[in-house]
Amino acid sequence: MPKFYEDKEEDGRACSGIREDFRACLLQHDCVVKEGKMPSQCLKEGHCKALQTSFFECKRSMLDNRSRFRGRKGY
Predict the structure, then answer these.
(1) How far apart are CA 56 and CA 60, in angstroms?
(2) What's the rounded Cα separation, in Å, for the pair 35 and 20?
(3) Burial 2-40 (b: 16+ CB within 10 A, else e)
(4) What is the documented function of this protein (predicted)?
(5) pLDDT tens digits, one per residue of 3-19
(6) CA distances from 66 to 20, 25, 30 (A)
(7) How far apart are CA 63 and CA 2, in angstroms?
């Protein structure tokens, strides 16, 4: 679920909403919090896979020439 806050400063970068949610998912996951592993290790184990795929699709749509007409994917 996307998290939006009123007092949050605006991030003008592309895919910033997905980036924030992906980061929060990784840092709050039991793999990092309880087991003390690095977030990169948790990614290799397959945690937060849906947000990782969405973030990849958003970044890939920036390079796609068709996205000029369709707009970037993501939020």
Answers:
(1) 6
(2) 22
(3) eeeeeeeeeeeeebebbbbbbeebbeebebbeeeebebe
(4) Involved in an early step of the mitochondrial complex IV assembly process.
(5) 555 555 567 777 888 99
(6) 25, 30, 39
(7) 24
Give the other-Cβ count within 10 Å of 51's Cβ.
17
Task: Determine the Cα–Cα distance for residues 4 and 49; give it in Å rounded to an integer.
Answer: 21
Distances (CA, A) of 6 to 3, 9, 30: 10, 8, 28
Predicted confidence (pLDDT) per residue in 20-75, tens digit: 999 999 999 998 999 989 999 989 998 999 999 999 988 888 887 776 666 666 66
Q: What number of residues does the chain have? A: 75
> Which residue has 């990614």 as its token pair?
43
The pair of three-digit structure tokens given for residue 43, joined into one six-digit string = 């990614």
